[in-house]
Amino acid sequence: MDRPESTGTLLRWWLRGLSGSLALAALAVSASDPRQGILLAFTVVLGFLPFTYARRRLHRSVVGALDRGSGPSYATLAWTAMGILCDL
Q: At what angle do helices 74-87 and 3-32 cross, to 10 degrees?
């Protein structure tokens, strides 16, 4: 199994889940206070999607640099795990 591809897939699913959970939180807030729920929903879309794009680009760049000479390594898996921990 090619590690950079598998870590990229893991990262994509992680970011989708994180975005989805924030969207669900916005819906839950909007049930009690519609104004704050709408504000939170716009904040997620306008604020978090650029972060997601930048995070994926950074991941691809670092994985490419780590695996340039030696092929796939456990360093890419460690980089992905560290990024997910920082997201939390």
A: 10
- 3-class secondary structure, 70: coil
Task: Give me the phi and psi of 68, to 5 degrees please.
Answer: -60, -50
- For the chain, the residue count is 88
pTM over 0.70, yes/no? no
DSSP letter assigned to residue 47: I
pLDDT tens track for 64-84: 777 666 655 777 777 778 878
State the greatest distance between any 2 C-alpha atoms of the chain, in Å, as a whole number.
54
Tokens 């924030």 found at: 22
Integer CA distances (angstroms), 45 to 20, 31, 40, 60, in order: 11, 18, 9, 22
Amino acid at 52: T
How far is Cα 50 from Cα 40, in angstroms, rounded to an integer?
A: 16
44 neighbors 22 (Cβ within 8 angstroms)? yes
